[in-house]
């Protein structure tokens, strides 16, 4: 199994969002929840309406690490949740499978949703459930260049993992060196 990549093209991020909005509102909300919170898909899927409706923060107990993550709800995501949660009961899953008994959709379904969007745009990079988390990290890095803060936000134990997430590879390091501004005037 090959490693999934973040969405590094801003227009692709927006295109996927627009495509999912047209296809299915639940999938659209799921997509932006993953990108704006940076949580693992297994921690997002069990969310209930009461966890996100009119909230400024979402508290997660990460299933993989058993660490707590208290994440601010981005203003854009708050608007998305507000509209989406209208008329829904607090006990409902945010991302239901629409079967009885009610349960959230599965990781497999999330993978299918993301790959359907990728196919719609002939996107050829490896994409999967972790793409949303990696996209969160990648764009935080593009905006801040603060690897340590991103490591903390992702609740990762080692900075090398964070560097891999955000795409700091040899080419990135080479480009940084070549940007040094020391030239004779």
Compact summary:
With 185 residues, the chain is mostly helical. Helix content is 54%, strand content 5%. The chain is built from 10 helices and 2 strands.
Describe the structure.
The chain is mainly α and 185 residues long. 54% of the residues lie in helices and 5% in strands. The protein has helices at 10-23, 25-37, 41-44, 49-52, 75-85, 107-120, 130-144, 147-153, 159-166, 170-178; strands at residues 57-61, 68-72. Strands 1-2 form a two-stranded antiparallel sheet. Helix 2 crosses helix 7 (130-144). The longest helix has 15 residues, at 130-144. It is globular and about 70 Å long. The chain starts with 9 loop residues before the first helix and ends in a 7-residue tail after the last helix. The model has no long low-confidence stretch (mean pLDDT 92).
């Amino acid at each position: 199994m090959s490693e999934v990549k973040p969405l590094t093209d801003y227009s692709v991020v927006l295109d996927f969002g627009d495509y999912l909005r047209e296809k299915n509102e639940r999938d659209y909300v799921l997509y932006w929840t993953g990108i704006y919170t940076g949580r693992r898909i297994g921690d997002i899927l069990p969310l209930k309406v009461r966890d996100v409706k009119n909230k400024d923060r979402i508290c997660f107990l990460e299933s993989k690490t058993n660490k707590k993550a208290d994440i601010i709800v981005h203003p854009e995501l708050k608007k998305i949740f507000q509209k989406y949660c209208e008329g829904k009961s607090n006990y409902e899953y945010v991302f239901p499978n629409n079967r009885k008994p009610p349960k959230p959709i599965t990781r497999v379904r999330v993978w299918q949703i993301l790959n359907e969007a990728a196919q719609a745009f002939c996107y050829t990079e490896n994409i999967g459930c972790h793409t949303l988390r990696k996209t969160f990290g990648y764009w935080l890095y593009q905006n801040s260049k603060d690897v340590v803060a991103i490591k903390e936000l992702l609740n990762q134990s080692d900075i090398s993992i964070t560097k891999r997430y955000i795409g700091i590879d040899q080419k990135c390091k080479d480009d940084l060196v070549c940007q040094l501004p020391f030239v004779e005037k």
